[in-house]
Sequence to fold (517 residues):
Amino acid sequence: MKSARTVMWLALPPALWLTAFFLMPMAGMLLTSLQGGEGGAGLGLAQYRALLGSPRYLRELGQTSLVSAVVAGLSVLFAYPLAWFLAFRGGQRRALLLLILMAPGWVSYLLRVFAWKLMLGTGGALNQVLLTLGLLREPAPWLLYSMSAVVAVLVYVWIPFAALPIFAALERIDRSLLEAAADLGARPWQAFRHVTLPLSLPGVSAAFCLVFIPTLGEYVTPLLVGGPRGQLFGNLVQSQFQKAMNWPLGAAMSLMMLLVAVPVMLLLARLGRLDLGEG
Amino acid sequence: MADLGRFDGKQYFVPWDWGFDSILVRTDKVAQVPTSWADLWNPAYKGKLSMSDMPDYNHAAAALALGFKDPWNTTPEQNAQIKAKMAALQPNILAFWGDGTELAQQISSGDVWVGGNAWPDAYTLLVQEGLPVAYAKPKEGRLSWVCGYGISAKAKDVDLAHAYIDAMIAPKAMAAFIDEFGFGAANFDALPLADAETVARLELDDPKVIDDSIFYAPLTEAQRDAMVAAWDDVKADQ
Fold:
């Protein structure tokens, strides 16, 4: 009894916090999205009808989901070797290396995006290198202000965060399992393929989620480096709130994004757990 | 300018700063300074143009390029033409800008040659940096806007609000504002106190530059929704 009560008291602050700053705003958003019903008065599904009736919104949402999946996939791909190195080869300096990995986070996000602008711009470092190597005749303007610039910046930003859950999952792996695999004649890559990788999948799926979901709602990066061909669904939502001052439609669009995010999250959570069971 | 703060015969806000939207070009990259809003569609600017991401700005630029006299009173047929015109501009657009400093950065880096609907602050900043730039006077007229201060009906301390506004529009404060940001000051008493070069460059002391321009007008909700939808449509088709 006592422990149950302790748990309840411990859970109370986060529960209150989430109610006040997550559930209530969500309810407010839901309510807002139902406004502007028929004839502008009362509650209704007018906003949702407008969204579903226009192929533009669904297409943009589809494209943004795809971009988010690419960003999440690439981040995980690049983060995995980092996390693996930290977990298995980091040794005593593991904490220091982890700190170095997170170091870019100390610099303001805006400054880091501007650094990318300097690298990718027509007079930027990357263009200069390509020109010098003779791979380009004239500076390529599409390196910056494009969807590829958005993906590049987002992947760069997310790699350290994607590495953390993978690192945590790799850390938890019982080293004797790998010794057993070696004893039974598995080559290192076989041990990785059949032992390490399956056991780290929960971390991988957590990392994917951690990147995918915030990217889905991203609008600052496209604003800065996207140009006209690199805008995401979040920019459409922002334009409804800030330019059209059409909050109901913007709220409905945000909730539509949830319809993409939640199934992906559930699917990944299930994948992670299933593989854990098998291992 | 004060008229824009008046509704139903009552003055609701006092003008504070004003400025233009016009075409800003790097004269070392672009042979001729544009003379019309229609010049933005010049194929030579392909991938070298930066526009503001604001729907009404783009609506107005397209409307003036099409020769419509009043961009804020357009018929549905004209709106359809404007949308097509905005779509035709997309190949030229490399980037969007959110504020004057961002535009100035894009232009000074050389990525952007033409600022489509640039504010005077970007122009002033680039001149101060010593870059060869020109701020066009399109024959249809520059667009111009004014911002100001109003007091909320629920204000608890109206005297304090008045004191604050008085301080903001004081000639000395507005002169510092002109020097710092390169926008116009609604209080013309500030002009003698401001940097003479900036005043001359933007012709802030010549009422004619204001008379020749087209002021932004208040929009109805329906107008604004339609402009946002048209602009978002145009962008989504990219």
